[in-house]
Write a structure and sequence with these properties.
single chain; 315 residues; alpha/beta; Rossmann fold; 7 strands
Length: 315
């Protein structure tokens, strides 16, 4: 996988939606930096040399997603499989502490790299990075990658609500402004289109299990069994059924180890929007206007014309 050297720089003003320039960011909301044209948190940019030199190990499992594509869901599924359905073990820490987020940086807290380096093998790690920004060692060590993709429209809606309540990312502006920002790929971790296509292509040459959010929603047991096979775990049917039950949205939204209930209000204001908001397929229909949908579909067809990748927009 090609590796490039990147220069960390501030994202241009064009990268911000209307009214979201530096002076307009409320409550000290940060702007994004930029690496090779991909918007990322400035703290991540400043940590970039350490992230790029991160040393993966052959038995690492890397959970990879575009933001708001079911990351916490697949993390909980993987952990329950690894812990063989032992609920007590899965309550040992919040899910975001169980799987170090390799590009996470928010001084003075330990960085994702620090957390990963302190973790004994075998490690399960997490990233939102597109393929071209992933540390080279993951490819060199022939690691296993578990990718979950979610349809672009629902990703956009979920990301919009996340940015409304998270204080450590730029404010999204109005829905109309955010619609434009997302379509232009000027959100954290860059364009959805390039992200899902890049990982789809990577599966042809690397050990990538590529799953779809909508498939997990439709038939969770079948998709959980795919994950089990991929990571080399054999569990009896009763345990699999238990995992299906305890990783359902209804159970996870009330699980303080998954729903970010302990996160300070200075980081996430869950009264604005819960971290686990709906977990459905097709919520975009409650947000997109007819005109937005038509425009999005035209743009989508153009940007996805060069891939065999297809998505379910509603169930």
């Amino acid at each position: 996988m090609k590796q490039v050297q990147f220069e960390c720089r501030r994202a241009s003003k064009r990268a911000m939606p209307t009214g979201q320039g530096k002076d307009a960011q409320p409550e000290g909301r940060p702007e994004l930096g930029e690496l090779d044209g991909i918007p990322l948190a400035k703290a991540t940019c400043q940590e970039w040399s350490r992230i790029q030199s991160f040393q993966a190990k052959p038995d690492d499992l890397l959970i990879c997603t575009y933001p708001k594509a079911g990351t916490t869901w697949i993390q909980e599924i993987v952990d329950m499989i690894q812990q063989e359905g032992d609920l007590e073990k899965c309550q040992r820490a919040p899910v975001h502490h169980r799987h170090p987020f390799i590009e996470w940086a928010r001084p003075p807290q330990p960085s994702g790299v620090d957390q990963a380096n302190a973790m004994p093998s075998p490690r399960t790690l997490k990233t939102h990075l597109p393929v071209q920004l992933l540390p080279r060692s993951f490819w060199e060590q022939n690691c296993k990658f578990l990718y979950v993709a979610r349809n672009a429209k629902d990703c956009m809606v979920s990301y919009f609500h996340f940015q409304r309540m998270s204080k450590v990312v730029p404010a999204p502006g109005t829905w109309q402004e955010y619609f434009e920002t997302f379509m232009a790929g000027k959100v954290g971790w860059g364009p959805w289109y390039d992200h899902v296509k890049g990982w789809w292509k990577a599966k042809d040459t690397h050990r990538v299990l590529y799953l779809f959010y909508e498939d997990i929603k439709k038939d969770p047991k079948r998709e959980i069994q795919k994950v089990m096979q991929f990571i080399g775990k054999q569990l009896d049917e009763a345990t699999v059924d238990k995992i299906v039950r305890h990783t359902s949205f209804e159970v996870m939204k009330d699980n303080p180890m998954a729903n970010r209930a302990g996160v300070p209000i200075s980081v996430m204001d869950l009264s604005i929007s819960p971290f686990m908001r709906k977990g459905t397929v097709g919520d975009w229909k409650n947000h997109f206007t007819v005109a937005q949908n038509e425009r999005f579909n035209e743009d989508y067809q153009r940007k996805m014309a060069d891939t065999t990748l297809t998505f379910t927009m509603e169930l």
